[in-house]
């Protein structure tokens, strides 16, 4: 798990965004990011791509802690609330169901303890 953790923590996109891996356990991951001014969209709201990237990073970490390589097949979700510059967002991904070839995960994104987005994702477990 230490080798996988090192690979995940050095993910170029996550490093660029400032996403930090907090927890990595089998079937579960938690990560966070601090919202900066350059992460806002043209309307001044936190860009949905940041929220999605945070959830996707947690999803990738959790699914690859079960079986690697695990590759995303689909992700769908809902944005429920916004955030502001200076807020710390966190995402948790957990396994809901698995087969030999696929896994279904739930990713929740929080601002403090408040749920601001939720996603479901399916991975393909490459043999």
Would you mind describing this structure in some detail?
The chain is of the alpha+beta class and 127 residues long. It has one domain (2-125): Thiol Ester Dehydrase, Chain A (Roll), CATH 3.10.129.10. The chain is 26% helix and 44% strand. The protein contains 3 helices and 6 strands. The protein has helices spanning 2-9, 12-17, 48-66; strands at 20-25, 28-34, 70-79, 88-98, 102-111, 114-125.
> What is Rg?
14 Å
Q: Would you state the CATH class?
A: Alpha Beta
Label the CATH architecture: Roll
Major beta sheet, specifics? 6 strands, antiparallel
- Taken together, the total number of domains comes to 1
N-to-C SSE string, H for helix and E for strand: HHEEHEEEE
Strand proportion, as a percent range, falls in 35-45%
Structural class: alpha+beta
Average pLDDT score? 97
Helix segment count? Answer: 3
Name the strands of the widest sheet in spatial order: 1-2-4-5-6-3
C-alpha termini separation? 19 Å
Shape call: globular
Which fold name is given in CATH as the topology? Thiol Ester Dehydrase, Chain A
Unreliable spans are none
């Amino acid at each position: 798990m230490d080798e996988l953790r090192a690979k995940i923590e050095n993910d170029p996109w996550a490093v660029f965004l400032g996403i930090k891996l907090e927890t990595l356990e089998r079937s579960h991951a938690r990560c966070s990011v601090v919202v900066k001014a350059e992460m806002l969209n043209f309307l001044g709201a936190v860009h949905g791509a940041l929220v999605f990237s945070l959830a996707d990073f947690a999803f990738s970490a959790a699914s690859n802690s079960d079986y690697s390589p695990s590759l995303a097949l689909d992700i769908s979700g809902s944005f429920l609330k916004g955030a502001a510059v200076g807020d710390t967002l966190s995402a948790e991904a957990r396994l809901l169901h698995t087969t030999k070839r696929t896994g279904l995960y739930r990713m929740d994104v929080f601002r403090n303890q408040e749920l601001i987005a939720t996603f479901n994702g399916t991975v393909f477990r490459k043999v």
